[in-house]
Amino acid sequence: MSKLAVLDELLERYYRLKYHKNSTLFQRLQDVQAWKKKRMEYTHAEQFLDKKNILMADFFMNRLYGGPDFDALAEQISRLTKYAHKAENFIPDNAIKTGALGVSLAIFAVELDEQVAEQLLADYHPHEAITDEMMRQTYLKLQQGDNRQKQLNMLDELGVYLDKYMRSFMIQAAFKMCKNVAIKHHFEVMYDFMQEGFLAIKPLKSAEKFVNEFTALERQIIDKVHSGDTNPFR
To answer: One Pfam family, short name please (predicted)?
Structure first.
């Protein structure tokens, strides 16, 4: 079985998302992601503004927690899996493993946020500005606590992978050698996705430490929401 088969499964999940065929839901999803980004920037301001953390913070906000349109990346991943037998010859196994986890996190984040967007559309006017109270009530109604904890556990795992696999000189050298191949076969978007991850961990002594600090605060937010705190985001 191809080591890239997991990416096929992830793409199936991505293309099942409802917002692809619903412009109103897509707009509300973007609103949810914008609110979440602003909230996270506030929650993690001290960590994110540390000079050595800026690139990793940007990678989190714009790649792992919903950012630019994922369609271009998904299209390239789809093409890559069709040529798995060739791709596996020049992509290191550990890079595939780490990249697949990153893609899985990005898709899972959108799945959870789409549920939030759907619930907001059911309960409020589609153009009503999203408030903290609206989000608190929606999180409570959806009872996403377990899945949000799962998301954070996956992030912790990614932090371990980044330190264990992606700091390797051999991995980084092999990745650099792939650049011309990626450009030749029009896989630039996917290459850039992974390149941003490499650049983000470079200034850090430990990616795992960065991730653990981030997830610790996020778990506090989840606990506050589900324990009845009326102002959990502040």
So the answer is: DUF8198
How far is the C-alpha of 64 from the C-alpha of 91, rounded, in Å? 21
For 96-114, letters b (16+ CB in 10 Å) and e give bebbbbbbbbbbbbbebbb
In a 13 Å sphere around the CA of 88, the CA atoms on its Cβ side amount to 13
Domain coordinates in residue numbering, the chain: 5-226
Q: How large a percentage of the chain has pLDDT more than 90?
A: 56
Q: Please answer whether residues 170 and 183 qualify as being in contact, where contact means their C-beta atoms are separated by less than 8 angstroms.
A: no
Averaged pLDDT for residues 151-158 = 96
The contacts found for 22-25 with CB under 8 angstroms, 24 or more apart, are: 24/121, 24/126, 25/114, 25/117, 25/118, 25/121
**Could you give the CA distance from residue 105 to residue 70 in angstroms, rounded to a whole number?**
12
pLDDT tens-digit map of 1-29: 456 677 788 888 999 999 999 999 999 99
Residue appearing with tokens 């153009």 = 127
Residues 162 and 102 sit within 8 Å (Cβ to Cβ): no
Note the pLDDT of residue 197. 79
In which residue are the tokens 């780490």 written? 98
Give the pLDDT confidence of 61-78 residue by residue, as tens digits: 888 886 556 777 777 777
**Number of neighbouring beta carbons within 10 Å of residue 186:** 11
- Cα gap 2→22, rounded to integer Å: 34
> From its phi and psi, is residue 68 left (phi > 0), alpha (psi between -120 and 50) or beta?
beta
130 is written with which tokens? 């999203």
